Amino acid sequence: MATTGTSAAHAQKSPGRLSVNSIMGSEGRYWLLIAPAVLLMLGFYFYPLARVLWMSFTFPSPGLGNYEDLIDNASVHRTLITTARIGVITTGLTLLFAYLISYVLVHAKPKVERIMFLGVLIPLWISALVRGFSWFILLRREGTINDVLISTGIIDTPLDLIWNELGVVIGMVHYMLPLGVLPIYANMRNIDTRCVAAARGLGASRGVAFRKVFLPLSMPGVIGAGILVFIYSLGFYVTPALLGGGKTLMIAEYIQLQIMDLVNWGRGAMLATTLLVTILLLLGVMSRIIDLRGLFGGK
Amino acid sequence: MTQSFEEDCADLIGTEEKKGMSRRDLLKFAASIGIPMALVPGMTRKALAADGQEVVLCNWGGVALEVFEKAFAEPYAAQGGKMVIDGSGPGTGKILNMVMANNVTWDIVDSGIVGLTQLGPQGALEEIDYSIVDKSKVIPEFAYDYGVVNYMFSSVLAWDSEKVEGTPTLADFFDVEKYPGRRLLRKDAQAMLELTLLADGVAIEDLYPLDVERALAKLATIKDDLLFWGSGSESQSLLREGECVMGMIWNTRANVLGKETDGRIKYTFEGGLLQPGLWAVPKGNPAGKQTAMEAIASMQAPEGQVMVLEAMGNGPANPAASDLVPEELAASNPASAENVAVQARISADWYAEYYADAMQEYLDFITS
Known about the structure:
Chain A contains 15 helices and no strands. Chain A is an all-alpha fold. By secondary structure, chain B is an alpha/beta fold.
C-alpha cells in the first residue's frame, strides 16, 4: 500500500516528535479513527452477544448438556432439517430468478433498465410483515390467484398456496430477490461483452458462447449472491411465521419460543450458537473459494 | 410468534398514534442489542419508586395503557397512592432476566398461568400476601401462591355461520365430513388440549390431569385440516377472511369478530376454557412487597374491573362486579355466572408440572 510507505517515511523525517505514528505504528492512526466504532461494537454488541451464547454452556447446569440435543433430540433435528431444506430451496430458486432478472437488466436499454431496477429495489424497502400480509391476500383459498384460476375454469378446487412450505418459500424468494439480484447484476455489469462477441465471431453458437464464456464469468456474482441469500434464509423469522400457518417451524422462531415461552434459555442459546457457528463456518469455507472482500465491497 | 393473551389485549383495539419512538420500542430495541436495562433512560424509576413508594405496574401497552390508567391508577391515586403504568410488556423471559440480574424495575406485572408456573418455581416471584389481598374478592381457585387473578378470559369455539349451519359442538370441530373446511387452533398447547379432550368426550370434572397423548391422537385425525394462529389479530383475520370455518380462539377476539362481520362469525362459551390473567410481583420489586400487595388489593374494587370489561372485553375477577355489568355486556362477559357455569377452568397445578413438556410435544406434533 502506497500510503503506508509515505507515512513511514514521514515518521523517519521527524524522529524527535511524538506523533501518533510513532506510538502506534504506521497503521495506528487508522485504528484510532475507527476505535470509537470498535469500542461501541465490543461493549454493546459482542459482549452481550457472548454472554447470551455463553449461557448455552451454563444454563440450567454447567456443561455440554444443551448440545446433546443436537445429537438426540428429534424436535431439534426436525427444526434444523426444515431450516436447511427451506434455506437450500429458497437459495436455489432465488439464484435462478435473480440470474434471469440480472441478465435481462444488463441487456436492456438504459431507460428500461432504470425502471426495471426500481421494480427490483422497491420491495426491498417494504417490511417483511407488509409483504407477508400481501401474500396472504393473493394466495389464500378465496384470494386473488385462486379466484382467477377457478373463474377461468383452470381448476375446480382452490390450490393450497399458503400455510405450508410452498407459501413460506414463495414469500422468502420474493424477499430475497433483491439480495440475489444486486451481486449478480454488479458482476454482470463488469463482464466485457466483447468476450461474448469474440466467441460468436470465432464460430460459437449463442448457447455455447453463453455457456462457455458468459456463465463462467458471471459465477463469482452467483456464488456471492448464493452465500448472502442462504445466510439470510437460515435466520429468517417473520415470513415463515406468517405464511407457514404454524406448521413450518424454522430455527429463528424455535429459538424465540424456547427463550420467551418455554424459558428454556440453555437450548435457545445453544441453537443460537449453532446457527452463528454454522454461518461463520460457511463464510470461512467460502472465503477460501472466492474473494469475500470484493463481494461485500471491501475493494 | 406465539403471543400471550395479555399481550393481545394491547393490540386488540389499540392502534393509537405513536409519536417517535415509544419507551416500549426503546426497551425492545435495547433488549434486542443487549443493553443492560439500567442504562436505558427512564429505568431510573427504580430509585423513584423506592423513595416515593410509587408502584410501577407493567402491562402490554396499547389500549390497555389508557384503560388501566383510568381503571386502576386513578382510584389508587385517590386513596393516596402513586401508580405508574408501564406498557413495555412483562414477558416471562424478561421478568426472569430482571430477577436474575437483580435489577427489577416492575412492582406488579400483568402475567398469566404460564408466567406463574414457569417463574414461581424458579423463585422469581413474591408470594401473594392474602392478609392484604382479599381472597373473598376472587374465585378462590384463581388465587395462587405466586399470583392472583386480575381479569378473566376464555378460549372458545367460534364458527363462520355461512359455512357452518346451526350451533356446532366441540365434537363437530373434529367432524370434517359434517362440516368440511379448515379449522383454526392456537400455536400453543394452552387451552387447545383441554378443548380437544372435551370434544373427545372427557367430562369437565375429569379433565385434569390432561391426557396429552389422547389429545394429540384426536388432533391427528384432522391434522390436514388444521391451521394455527400465533397472535390474536391473526386468529381474527383468518376467520374473517373465510380461510377457516371454525376456530378455537379467545373470547375477546370472537366478540370483536361478531361485531365486525355483523354476526357472521358466532361463538359460544359452552365447552370453553376459563383462564385467569394474573397479577404477579417479581422478587425484589423496587417499591417493596407490602406496597405492591396494597396496590393489588386496591385493584380488586369491582368498578375498575368493569371498566376493563367495557373497554377490552376481559371479565372482572371480582364476582361482585357482575352486579355492575351493564346488561348488554353480560352475554359477552366470560366471568358471568351463566358463562362460568358452562366452561371448564384451567388448572395451574397441572401447568406447573407439565406445561413445558406438553407445549414441546404439541409443537412437535404441529410441525411434523
